[in-house]
Amino acid sequence: MKDQSNTPSRFKRSPCPVACTLDVLGDKWTLLVVRDLFAGKKTYGEFQHSPEKIPTNILADRLKRLVAHEIVAKEPYQARPVRYQYVLTEKGRELGPVLKAMVQWGEKHVPGSKALMKPAG
User: Stretch 11-23: mean pLDDT, rounded?
Assistant: First the structure.
């Protein structure tokens, strides 16, 4: 296992992998942003059109956190004015099976839920 002492979430609660993962991804919005990335959204404006209507200040914060944790990469796609797009890194793409399991669980156990996308994995 590689040393992760320089990662932004060094054991906020405990070294338990579930707790550590929740420290990174476990709020109301973060996995929805990741879901949207799997669905092909890349720009700030595209994320704002999600059905959950994430507030702009929260969206900016979650994208910044995902970049800090190297789950997402921020890449310029326009020079003037500078505009950025967000793409999943390899680490982020590894969340595909997690999202797929959540979709399957939700479809089975939450009446009326409907998948907006089917993550790979």
Answer: 89
Q: Is residue 4 one of the residues assigned to a domain?
A: no
The confidence score (pLDDT) of residue 114 equals 87
Query: According to the 3-state scheme, what is the secondary structure of the chain?
Result: CCCCCCCCCCCCCCCCHHHHHHHHHCCCCHHHHHHHHHCCCCEHHHHHCCCCCCCHHHHHHHHHHHHHCCCEEEEEEECCCCEEEEEECHHHHCCHHHHHHHHHHHHHHCCCCCCCCCCCC
Q: CATH no. for residue 43?
A: 1.10.10.10
Domain count for the chain:
1
Beta bridge partners of 84: 76
Burial 1-30 (b: 16+ CB within 10 A, else e): eeeeeeeebeeeeeeeeeebeebbbeeebb
Instruction: Assess whether pLDDT exceeds 60 at residue 48.
Output: yes
Is 73 contained in some domain? Answer: yes
Question: Which structural domain range is residue 72 located in?
Answer: 17-89
